Amino acid sequence: MEATNRTIVARMDSPVPLIPQLAAHLVAAGGKRLRPLLVLASARLCGYTPGPDGIRRHVNLAACVEFIHTATLLHDDVVDESHMRRGLASANAVFGNKASVLVGDFLFARAFQLMTDDGALRVMAILSAASATIAEGEVLQMSTQNDLSTSLERYLEVIHGKTAALFAAACRVGAVVAERPAAEEIALETYGTNLGMAFQLVDDALDYAADQARLGKTVGDDFREGKITLPVLAAYEAGDETERAFWRRVIEDSDHTEADLATALDLIDRRGAIARTLDHARRYADAACAALDVFPQSRLRRQMTDIARYTVDRDR
């Protein structure tokens, strides 16, 4: 991870001053670095070792995955008009929307440079397909916004696109660089997909159940933006007609005040919507752990299982 962080910092450099300035803001904000960690862990689990040239493909591809992720965050914060990210002012709040969009484009370009430096067509196919799926997921989310008729299946399709696809790709390229059999590739892709689904479900729950200071972003953002997430769908489905009228007003009609957030939190709690969301997340985490059964028991496999458990139990 230290080598990956050095690569990230080096590849964020540019003779255009605003780019490293905005990049430094992102690096200072930290983050879990979970996606690049998955590249490194998957490659190690598959026995990858650098070749005689000393190039550590897994390190460069871990940085590539983090650039794809960070680029999408920059664009998402502009689309969502978010003002906090990882406990700090978001990049768009500090530098403006135009700079955030353009530096996001720069990071996508850097990601594709790292892919071409790696030179493996299969790696490029996996990561470029994931990038397209992320964009599709974000557009699909936009099309479901403010729509309480959204089905659970469509909601799960959204979170697969916007989050799980990159988790899956990160894990799969680890097996690819290690030149492992297809069964191990698929197992790691399955692990990453289920881990990503659990991760996003918990993120959606935390928007209604977290301590804002620990979460690092504004609680209730999804509510204010009219995003359709499982806590809202579950509360709406279980609610009586008065409660459903409330949800239609605040979500579908976007007619709400700050006081309505407290009401929404109360209804979500009363109807057990957070518990239902976390139950879904646990099932995905269990499936992620089960996917690793093709690998022998090891310290690293246990750590990857721990990551799945942490994903569900985290509070930020």
TrEMBL record:
GO terms for molecular function: all-trans-octaprenyl-diphosphate synthase activity; metal ion binding. InterPro entries: Isoprenoid_synthase_dom_sf, Polyprenyl_synt, Polyprenyl_synt_CS. It catalyses: 5 isopentenyl diphosphate + (2E,6E)-farnesyl diphosphate = all-trans-octaprenyl diphosphate + 5 diphosphate. GO terms for biological process: isoprenoid biosynthetic process. It comes from the Bacteria. Signal peptide: none annotated. Its EC number is 2.5.1.90. Pfam families: polyprenyl_synt (PF00348). It is an enzyme of class 2 (transferase). SUPFAM superfamilies: Terpenoid synthases (SSF48576). Keywords: Magnesium, Metal-binding, Transferase. Its cofactor is Mg(2+). Gene3D superfamilies: Farnesyl Diphosphate Synthase. Belongs to the FPP/GGPP synthase family. Supplies octaprenyl diphosphate, the precursor for the side chain of the isoprenoid quinones ubiquinone and menaquinone. This is Octaprenyl diphosphate synthase.
